[in-house]
Design a protein that fits this description.
Layout (H helix, E strand, L loop, with lengths): L1 E4 L10 E2 L2 E2 L6 E7 L38 H12 L6 H6 L5 E8 L3 E2 L3 H11 L4 E4 L6 E2 L4 E8 H32 L15 H13 L1
Helix pairs in contact: 1-4, 3-4, 4-5
């Protein structure tokens, strides 16, 4: 059984700079592959807001998030998870998938582009269920080709589904910003393009982080 999720976008009209047309943003697909019989294991409560792990350090990030007194990365994660699933979980998953079933889910690039949001994705998975095992073949700022499998997560299906929509929503937005920023900066060279406070409400931290991911890599 394969469940594939796709994300749509509201984007501005395509722009033309020096005869270079840029597309925004590179979508990613996320597939859940249910394998074998469900495995018995200790149960982790499926809550989007309750489980936390304070051991994550920014020092391990390929590109650290920008700092400002008003920025609250943990708060953004908790708010997004609570908005999407709260403490109820995914109702379709609850109705169709055994509670203790384990799965592997893969990150697949649907277009060429710069991937951003990997460090944030790890924080989100860890927030929902610290026992989830996440592996990446790329890091923030790396270029990915269409069709490339660049990451996977293994663990309880119910907890993966709680996290995956928020993970994809953030990663797709950040990857689109990083990719489009590179295209605009290359087109405008030797002039410089400055990022400003004209960002989506409550998402300034993530939008500016995506720009930094492109610039510092």
């Amino acid at each position: 059984m394969v469940l594939t999720y796709k994300q749509g976008y509201l984007s501005p009209q395509p722009f033309l700079i020096r005869d270079i047309t840029s597309r925004f943003p590179p979508p990613l697909s996320f597939s859940l592959k249910l394998q074998g019989q469900p495995k018995l294991r200790s149960i982790v409560k499926m809550s989007a807001t309750e489980v936390t792990n304070p051991t994550i350090s920014y020092e391990s990030f390929a590109v650290k998030p920008p700092l400002h007194p008003t920025y609250d990365l943990k708060g953004i994660i908790k708010l997004a998870l609570a908005e999407d699933a709260g403490d109820l979980g995914d109702i379709t998953c609850l109705a169709t998938i055994p509670f203790d079933m384990e799965v592997e889910a893969y990150f697949l690039a649907k277009e060429d582009g710069i991937v951003a949001g990997i460090a944030l994705a790890e924080m989100i998975f860890n927030e929902v269920d610290p026992s989830l095992k996440v592996e990446w073949s790329k890091k923030d700022g790396d270029f990915v080709h269409k069709g490339l499998q660049f990451g996977k997560v293994h663990g309880r299906a119910h907890n993966i589904v709680v996290a995956e929509r928020v993970v994809l929503n953030f990663m797709q937005r950040m990857s689109g910003i990083a990719t489009l920023t590179k295209a605009m900066a290359n087109a405008a060279s030797p002039a410089y393009i400055l990022e400003t406070r004209k960002t989506a409400p409550c998402l300034r931290l993530l939008d500016k982080w995506a720009v930094l991911i492109w610039w510092r890599t």
